[in-house]
Amino acid sequence: MTDFLLRALAGGIGVALVAGPFGSFVVWRRLAYFGDTLAHSALLGVVLGFLLHLNLTLGILAVCQSLALLLFLLQRQKHLASDTLLGILAHGALSLGLVLLAFVETLRVDLFSYLFGDILAIGRTDLLWIYGGGAFALAALALIWRPLLAITVHEDLARVEGVPVEAVNWGFMALMALAIALLMKVVGLLLVTALFIVPAATARRFVVSPEGMALGAAGCGMLAVVAGLAASYRWDTPAGPSIVVAAVLFFFLSSLLPRRGR
Amino acid sequence: MNGRREKTPERLVAVEDVRLAFAREEVLRGVSLEIRKGEIVTIIGPNGAGKTSLLRVLLGLQPVTSGRVSTAPGLCLGYMPQRIVVDAVLPLTVRRFLALTGKRKTPELNRILGEVGAAGVLESPVQNLSGGEMQRVLLAKALLREPDLLVLDEPVQGVDVQGQIELFSLIGRIRRERGCAVLMVSHDLHLVMAATDRVVCLNRHVCCTGTPGSVQEDAAFRQMFGPEALRNLAVYAHQHDHDHGERDRGEGRHD
User: Fold this and answer.
1) Which of A75, A183, A256, B15 has a 20 to 30 Å separation from B204 between CA atoms?
2) pTM exceeding 0.90
3) What is the ipTM of this complex?
4) Does the distance separating the beta carbons of A261 and B91 come in below 8 Å?
């Protein structure tokens, strides 16, 4: 196997490990559209990162975090439903990114690689980001795991029982932004949500605990990465979409298997 | 009973002259209420009377527009929300549900489930519980905290009449055995009347308050629920088709 394929495999597996636990919360808390919105803003992060001579991953991270904060503040007003707000921010941020991109003549980015990922171009720095950032994101998620689960079940009950709801929610949003910046490298901004929700949805049938679902989702994600990369190598298909197709295939195939639990 | 409870002063929570308004709508006006140690207080009132809002104020979940809310220092609250629906996509057993905000040992969990009459559901997914079982599990979760005050929002909602009678008698027994105060909200008149020390009739303001017996004689109470309902108190079912105008006139007269 060649070097670039090994790096792709390592990067993909790292990203799947991060996507599993975060994706479970995305599914439990119905945050698919929220994740999508943060991902759509990533292109803006790339352009701003380039203009400000920042690391592009840092640029993505900064823009995602700002958008999460903006959303948090906007949701305090009650005039618009949150899916409307999300739609405004998602497409506003993506379009602003594309428009700014046109102004920066010196920046020749391969748009396709940002939209759909470029796992075959993953380098050592990317791997460092994926494993360093991923380990941090997972460790921090483990720290807030119990209170976050309590909030997911019933926010008021958690609050009465002493959970610092705002702090935990805010921490989770910030970690989501980090996870999205990492997932971007593998499947691109348009397919990030798929890597969150498809493996988690696949795992649900076979688990009886929240932690089981997080691990199962990570496992399903890794299988999809391996299968998608193999298919991409064999038939020369785009890697990111191949991984998502593999994940979706696993989802439908798994629904033929008997489910666990009562 | 335990050390903490002995130190608890008589008055557990109190609201004084509380007003709560959202945008254009005034939900609570001039509401004063206090809950004392060991008593069972029931808030009754028609739909939209602000019952749940008042509970949320007392729980500290809802900031008030004006007025004072005070809580005894160190007060431990047990809260049973109106209804919890755990999405089927979240795999959660009763064991995990009970231990969401604190580690619990199996004997403790079994004992508390036995106390509320839901023994044997510990390893079931919460989604598989019947309405009555879920209410009992919610009650168990509130009791695990050894609360000084149990706050129950429509505790018998979605439970059949036999189950309602059992739940009210369970609540009475919990008060006797644990000595905790109970504050509940109810739609139902008949069953609640038998299970409570003090009734508060709420219709955005406190229309009347007192023992179940005295409240039933109160003109404001009769105005609120109508002569028909009182005549049929024994087979009471709450009327949802309250005439707004009549209700408002009633408030003015008895404020």
Assistant:
1) A75
2) no
3) 0.86
4) yes
